[in-house]
Write a structure and sequence with these properties.
The structure is a homodimer. By secondary structure, chain A is of the alpha/beta class. Chain A folds into two domains: about 5-130, Enolase-like, domain 1; about 165-415, Alpha-Beta Barrel (TIM Barrel). Chain A is about 40% helix and about 15% strand. Chain A contains 18 helices and twelve strands. Chain A has helices at about 60-70, 70-75, 80-85, 85-95, 95-100, 105-130, 130-135, 140-145, 160-170, 175-185, 200-210, 225-240, 255-265, 280-290, 305-315, 330-345, 355-370, 415-420; strands spanning about 5-15, 35-40, 50-55, 185-195, 215-220, 245-250, 270-275, 295-300, 320, 380-385, 395-400, 400-405. In chain A, strands 4, 5, 6, 7, 8, 9, 10, 11 and 12 form a nine-stranded mixed beta sheet that branches. A three-stranded antiparallel beta sheet of chain A has the order 1-2-3. In chain A, helix 13 (about 255-265) links the parallel strand 6 and strand 7. The radius of gyration of chain A is 21 Å and the shape is globular. Chains A and B meet through helix 1, helix 5, helix 6, helix 13 and helix 14 of A and helix 1, helix 5, helix 6, helix 13 and helix 14 of B.
Chain lengths: ~425, ~425
């Protein structure tokens, strides 16, 4: 029996804007940041639960404050009760009526809940001495459906349908785990394609991506069509016809504009078009998808919750679903989203990069492969080679694959030295 | 020439949960609260801009922290530049790429921006020595469209269409202003219908509502169908056939459940059914609207932004649109929403109550009557008789009408004594 003694938060910011890493059509100068939380207990095992919300700089303090609000809910609570009933724990936090008013289920408060839920999963996996992907994959279908909040999903996915999907995927799970450990999980790289890079740097990084074994790259687009045509052309000429190229507009366009713009790039054979417009625009994405078919539309890193995802699947707004490790209310809501995607037969290709997103989201894709969709055909996890050195267990990506982490936990734990060194102090603030 | 010297925030909470005022099917024990902001300048005129986000208690501290984040944007800025270009000012704050990541355009950060934008409007109206409804109504169509962010609206409303709506409404504006001052604007009351009230209290408050001149009341429903049938029946028997009765489920239902439940209440002749399900569920609201026609569906107090509202209008998800004074990014975004509603011919009946919402939102309805829709037929502003005594210029509601405020400003200014007395101190926190 142990008790939560503290939620310790840190405002961590890396000054990435100095190098234009991560620059795109909507986000010219991100400072990759984490509103970071450690859950401490009085158990002498020394295990801590770590989690975070990824942000791109200013406002990270407000995100930290939202996580701090949750200390009042968790400190003093029995750890085993929370961890043994992760479905109840998650629903208790997301359905608290007063906190719910601040969303509901979206934005800063929702992401704060996600960080705390994920930190509890990290603690649970560490106590079980297994990586999170393995912990989740070894849960039974009945245990897994207990993690979900089926509220507002009934028009698309019932508990019985979810059980049926999970039971079907349980067949062959052991074989797939052997295969996963032997061959890893497909990755693609966004490293070559940031908008702020020169043509020479783009060309060089495309060559390196192919050399490193990636079968897909992604380019940021949407600032200038002629530049995009030139850059996608350079990429296609450099990687050849056998490597896929996705493009990402980061919500830059109106609906008609998106269709026109994408059509002008289709000759380069696009794997998908990501975030063409507002992430809230279910109807707009559906119109774009119809207008650019058969090129798939991908979105999700800014989709606020399972209710919006459910509608995007119902309206065929997306053909590639991109979960994010820290946008929704943690692992529980992401498992619901994986089940929705499986129900509609849509592949999940997670958003990653930023800081720590690769480390965490790989667990969900590997779990999906083993226990939900049962396949990684047409699926690939984003990889960006930034800031991994700050993590206790950085991702292992080589030969174009993510290699399953063996260490216990969720992957979220950042090195103490990095957290200290990059703790944001107000006076560092750059003039806005 | 003056400069913003400070954004001073206060965490104000009224312990309303002790009396079950404001109790509904999703929110059993709200503590009406305000994340309050004062914008101070170095101008010797002593005018301050006041604004707030309404919350229901826990998490109000996180909402305050999000407003504090905006101090870094505003302190030191020239006041006249900001106030003279309120469209630019609003778009600058909502399109800041780093802050935008925290939504985008939804949740705590978006509402924080709304509070600050509204505080600037309050300051602008005070400097102009007019109430905000008058300030807005006297702006030209060209000035008004400059306030809007048309991004993501192009499938439903262009700048030219907005101009056309405003120019059409400009005809007869002077006459309508005379009429407004003479006859006020229709109000309805939710005071009788809180879920925690006894049947006797319901009956008594229904009688008082009719006696006070209200032509519509609203009842909270959704916890128990038999209770709802009894309570709506009591209300109908008490108010008679000539007073409208709306019901409000506060997001309690699944889609099919909503249709079944509402059909079981339709014999009592419902003016509208409010928030039947998730405020993110565009498709679900549309299905409910089809399933309960001709009873109208109303929603909006939790609709995150103009992009969701635009889709709800496109899909006929709502037949009554309920703007809220503090959910979206302030007056500017609400003006866009009023224009969208006018485009689709849907009446706007604002959400109010809480603390301070009546005081602020009346300005938008009166502006809508004068300069956008040009009518108040089928339109009515919610009124709840709570906490008005804490405002410098409390609403004047009598004879079932809102009476246009004459005092300069937006109505948001809370008495200094109330702010001090109800400033939340952590140790008051009730166990969760």
């Amino acid at each position: 029996m142990s008790t939560i003694t503290a939620l310790e938060t840190t405002d961590v910011r890396f000054p990435t804007s100095r190098f234009l890493d991560g620059s795109d059509a909507m986000n010219p100068d991100p400072d990759y940041s984490a509103a970071y939380v450690r859950i401490l207990t009085d158990e002498p095992d020394e295990f801590e639960g770590h989690g975070f919300v990824f942000t791109i700089g200013r406002g990270n303090d407000a995100q930290v404050a939202a996580i701090d609000t949750l200390a009042g809910y968790l400190v003093g609570k029995n750890v085993e009760t929370l961890l043994d009933q992760m479905g109840e724990t998650y629903r208790w936090l997301t359905n608290d009526s007063q906190l719910r008013w601040l969303g509901p289920e979206k934005g800063v408060m929702h992401m704060a809940t996600g960080a705390v839920v994920n930190a509890l999963w990290d603690l649970k996996a560490k106590r079980a001495a297994v990586p999170l992907w393995k912990l989740l994959a070894d849960m039974s279908p009945d245990e897994l459906v207990e993690l979900i909040d089926f509220r507002y999903l009934s028009t698309a996915l019932t508990k019985e349908e979810a059980l049926s999907i999970l039971r079907q995927a349980a067949v062959g799970k052991v074989d797939r785990e052997v295969e996963l450990l032997k061959f890893g999980y497909p990755a693609y790289t966004t490293t070559p394609g940031w908008l702020g890079y020169s043509d020479d740097k783009l060309r060089r990084l495309c060559r390196e991506a192919v050399r490193d074994g990636f079968r897909q790259i992604k380019l940021k687009v949407g600032a200038n069509l002629e530049d995009d045509r030139r850059r996608v052309g350079i990429a296609r000429a450099t990687v050849g016809d056998d490597v896929a190229i996705a493009i990402d507009a980061n919500q830059r366009w109106e609906v008609d504009e998106a269709i026109t713009w994408i059509r002008a790039l289709q000759e380069y054979d696009l794997a998908w078009v990501e975030e063409p417009t507002s992430p809230d625009d279910i109807l707009g994405h559906a119109a774009i998808a119809r207008g650019i078919a058969p090129t798939p539309v991908a979105t999700g890193e800014h989709v606020a919750n399972r209710v919006i995802f459910r509608q995007m699947l119902q309206e065929q707004s997306l053909q590639v679903l991109q979960i994010d490790a820290s946008r929704v209310a943690g692992m529980n809501e992401n498992i619901a989203i994986l089940l929705l995607a499986a129900k509609f037969g849509v592949p999940v290709c997670p958003h990653a990069g930023g800081v720590g997103l690769c480390e965490v989201v790989q667990h969900l894709s590997m779990f999906d492969y083993l226990a939900v969709s049962g396949t990684h055909t047409g699926r690939t996890i984003e990889f960006v080679d930034h800031l991994h050195e700050h993590f206790v267990n950085p991702v292992q990506v080589h030969s174009g694959r993510y290699w399953p982490p063996a260490q216990p936990g969720s992957g979220a734990e950042m090195l103490g030295a990095s957290r200290s060194e990059y703790t944001f102090i107000e006076c560092e603030s750059i003039a806005i």
